[in-house]
Amino acid sequence: MEEKTIDKTELKSAPESPAGPGEKLFVTSSPHFLNKESVPKIMHTVVLALFPAMAASVYFFGFRALLLYVICIGACLITEYAYQKYMKKPIKVYDGSAIITGILLAMTLPPGFPVFGAILGSVFAIGVGKQLFGGLGFNIFNPALLGRAFLMATYPVLTTTWVEPRTVQKAVDAVSAATPLALMKFEHKFTPVLDLFTGNVAGSLGETSAIAILIGGLFLRYKGYVNWKLPLGYLGSMAAFSGIFWLIDPTKYPDPLFHLFAGGAMLGAWFMVTDMVTSPTTDLGQWIFAITGGIMAVVIRLFGGLPEGVMYSILFMNAFVPLLNKHTRPRVFGAIKAKAE
Amino acid sequence: MGHKTFARGVHPSYYKELTASKRVESAPLPKTVTIPLQQHLGAVCEPLVKKGDLVVEGQKIGDVKAFVSAPVHSSINGKVKDIELSQHPGGVRVLSVVIEGDGTTKEWSGPEIDLGSLSPEALREAVREAGIVGMGGAAFPTSVKLAPPKGKAIEAVILNGCECEPFLTADHRIMAEEPGKVVWGLKALMRATGASKGFIGIEENKPDAIEALKKAVGSTGVEIIILEAKYPQGAEKMLIQAALGRKVPVGKLPLDVGVVVNNVGTAVAIYEALNYKKPLIERIVTISGNGVREPKNLKVRVGTSFEEVLNLCGGLTGEGEKEVLNGGPMMGIAQSTLSVPVVKGTSGITVIAAGKIKPDNYDPCIKCASCVSACPMGLMPYRLGDYGLKQMLANFKDYDGQSCIECGCCSYVCPAKRPLLQWIRMGKFFIRRESQRAAAKANNNK
User: Global pTM?
Assistant: First the structure.
């Protein structure tokens, strides 16, 4: 339904045109220059930017991690293709956006998550989270996070059962372990920031190595596909807000660096808050979106029932995007300060 | 870096090197010219000649009493062959005078007059009689700009030498080759408007023109403002903000902030009109683009056909689809035929040849906000595009769609290749039609 051919008319040029007889001139509306960006190019660059984090998780969790990535990406692509085929929509499965959803969904899962669950999550993420809204560009919520939220509801235990990375495992069998955030919340143990930074901790695939995500995020920033306001606003407000509590009582509350590098903060800030489709389009809207999201994540982490709040903070803010876009319009050039009406 | 500029905008590839250092050549005398009776914004002129009349170069052949209009003149010596409706490079058909030349030309020259000897009114009248219009492309009658309504004082005249359109170098060459005439023209404009300050805004990417102008300005008090090379730096509102820090309010004109903007080419035309008594009958045109064999800057008589001009540049070349544009690639109008004439507002003829100039399809909007961060007017083009396409005119107005200056930045940056500007134009068109219909209805009811 969105697919329409751009209006264009081809008219014959004058008979003795220097272009040679019969050559047709092309007529379109200005501008006649377009830049070289395209939706698939953006999406594939994001996939590329996710590679360091993927590699890190495979390194820390081994074969299971790789398996989950393959399953999630595959299931997302198949769901997208099947839906578009069934609904007789143009097949846009190659634009790379389903791959991103697959990778991001896998990154939110614990390494030991069952394959069937991963498939179910992928089908929900693409089918309900994206295609039912109208496909790429029309979804309100980040599909991967919606898939993860769905799995939280259906497999509450499995989505929160973690294993130590294989780099720190002592026994041959994987031993279940708590994530740094759960340790902080339920046992008041703070994990060293260095381990968080490199990823040598228990957690979801993409929650572990902050540095790998940072590399990918900065690469995207360099490419110009990340609006710097979003990760900066989100991480900045997380650090500032958690810093207040840390200053009040450093024994009870962890320091801001811990918050930044633990859990899904880095992944969320660089790859989910920055999702173009589900973030605001205006400058002010982006600031509000990111800053409120960051505060909400800290609130959930410190005072909510869950150890991790990044996912819900982003989903929650996603819901406000249409409202933010509507009420934070940029000021029109030359607008008179107070509209005299 | 560090040059004055406006907020947002885009940086397309400029491709100015194709013609930037090429001196202006005079095109040979055309055998016939087709001179449209409307080469400006405003009322169409009525022909002052009839079929079979002999005309001389510079003779007025069309005029009308309307205030917002400019007369047209014959650009060659010869005989009126026909007066007919003919294709205009603006995309419409306009009554035009076809003149067959006799092969002779007139020399235009004269001593530099003393500006102080002319009253502002006389200056304005001379500018109107010479048929001078804005030569940057929009072709707004210059005499109208010089006559501000009562109670509105003009403080500054800015000459626009930005030339932010890719490919075009006509203004660049004018400033580099005839800086004296540019500065004199600015002085004349200041005298006509009573402005006390004069500025020349120029993009940093024309160092030779900046040098030349600096020499020509000397100690006359005219200030040269060097601006960042960014599109659309030459848009009137953007230029005023970048140069003077003043914002033209929504729905208002530059003169509401005490400024008049004119193109550098217009200043030269004024010089020649006042000193040589030469009306606007020829102009400098950049012929460039990858579809032209030999890109050039040519001095072309108004009425010469695009075909003839392109032949002087070796004709068209390149594989695939071709677009011939009146103007540059960002705002130029694509031509369906090469038999259209060069008019007063033709700053360039750009020929683009590519396997595919525009993609066949566009993708859904991914809300990347590229258009929002590119729009120099602070609009939300992705919204306006939808509203225009779907004729949701109330929303279109609410989102200030009518402030759009049609620079094309939004379509240029869109990764989904959505023809945003085309849709916004549709919205503006529908609103215009709506109000026209309402006005017609009100008239009928009277």
Answer: 0.88
